[in-house]
Amino acid sequence: MKRIISIFGEKIREHLIPIKENTQIANLNGYVLKPEYAKKSRSNQFIFVNNRSIKSQFINHSISSSFDGLLREGYFPGYFLFINMNPLKIDVNVHPNKTEIKFDDEKTLYAILRSTVKHSLGQYNVAPILDF
Fold first, then answer.
1. Which of 8, 13, 35, 86 is most buried, by the most CB atoms less than 10 A from its CB?
2. Which CATH code, of 1.20.140.10, 3.90.1150.10, 3.30.230.10, 3.30.70.860, is assigned to 2-123?
3. What does the domain layout of the chain look like in residue ranges?
4. 30 forms bridges with which residues in the sheet?
5. Alpha-carbon distances of 52 from 47, 65, 83, 94, 128, rounded to whole Å
6. Tens-place pLDDT, residues 105-117
């Protein structure tokens, strides 16, 4: 959080929602920004897998789908996501710059990401949450 605030300014602190989930597939932690802080660009989307900065359309989609009904048309959620997982479960040789990676179990990771972000949004009263 200190690094995020030092780069983006103190004002961002009130918009950060923590996310944290530890599973057998991956350990997730980081922050998503409240829907009112969404932008028309993807400039506030940061993903790190095993401390490597990456780009991932499927991760972007899983997080964006967590915000269904919360964002205006054409706006994108902001997030700072750190994923730690077994290096044998990913392939970093997809792109020459090593900025894109392939996950062995994308469907499960997609579901974990989506539910973790939805749960955090519900916990911080940003989105309704159903408790069974």
1. 35
2. 3.30.230.10
3. 2-123
4. 19, 81
5. 8, 24, 9, 14, 33
6. 889 999 999 999 9
